[in-house]
Amino acid sequence: MANPAAPTDPAQPDPDESPAAYRKGPVMLRGNQVPRETTDQRLLESRGDAGWVHQDQWRVLRIQAEFVEGFGALAELGPAISVFGSARTGRDHPDYARAVDIAHGLAGAGYAVITGGGPGIMEAANKGACEAGGVSVGLGIELPFEQGMNRWVELGVNFRYFFARKTMFVKYAQGFVVLPGGFGTLDELFEAVTLVQTRKVTQFPIVLVGSDYWTGLVDWLRSAAVAHGTISAADLDLLHVVDDPAEAVRLVTRAHDEPAATPESQSSAT
């Protein structure tokens, strides 16, 4: 399936596409209908009057519904890998091509590919999975600047709450492939490391793609965090830094087929 011509900047929609849609759970909004605050923001707001006392009980039901929808949609997904990276990566960037190749390789190895469903690296991974005939999954989130699901998502679920969405990324994946990204990518990366390090999940390889981007972070963890005693040196063995897409695919699929012991760690989660 060929990718139609598209602008370099993923923040600019194609002229032949509909205006970017804002997703609020199952509801799609555009234009003046887009709200100025998110569901998560309202949930976590601690200022103002005490009206929340009478509302949060009902929010629990909405939260429960998100878990039910996610579990129902993904229960029969089969083996999958979550791929993370920046939404700002242009289609002509080398990282975009890497993500396409990685997802193509994962789909060829029989894995579904799970992303956040947005543009940039997420779009690239969904594209690679689709072109290889694999299962392309997008887990969207309600954000003021979110552009909706990219065109390559075949199975999409929209979430209001970050914590419900994060559960799906981990529950239905056998590993993470992390390409260069910003705060959201770093959040997912360190949450994954924490879950493996504390043995909340097992058999969960974490592959960082792009040594020029990730080596500085790993070096800092070694020279500062390990040296300061806040993490164990063995914790760094949980991270694999590679440049070759084929090597990234090999590492996550090998770990699933031949489970390796989780490195022993003396540090505690904070």
UniProtKB/TrEMBL annotation:
Start-end of Low complexity biased regions: 1-11
Catalytic activity of the protein: 9-ribosyl-trans-zeatin 5'-phosphate + H2O = trans-zeatin + D-ribose 5-phosphate; N(6)-(dimethylallyl)adenosine 5'-phosphate + H2O = N(6)-dimethylallyladenine + D-ribose 5-phosphate
Location of region: Disordered: 1-38
Matches recorded under Gene3D superfamilies: 3.40.50.450
UniProt entry tagged with the keyword Transferase: no
InterPro entries: LOG, LOG_fam, LOG_family_nucleotidases
Keyword annotations of the record: Cytokinin biosynthesis, Hydrolase
Enzyme class: hydrolase
E.C. number: 3.2.2.n1
Record Pfam families: Lysine_decarbox (PF03641)
PANTHER family, A to Z: CYTOKININ RIBOSIDE 5'-MONOPHOSPHATE PHOSPHORIBOHYDROLASE
Similarity remark: Belongs to the LOG family.
Protein name: Cytokinin riboside 5'-monophosphate phosphoribohydrolase
Organism annotation: Luteimicrobium album
Species lineage: Bacteria, Bacillati, Actinomycetota, Actinomycetes, Micrococcales
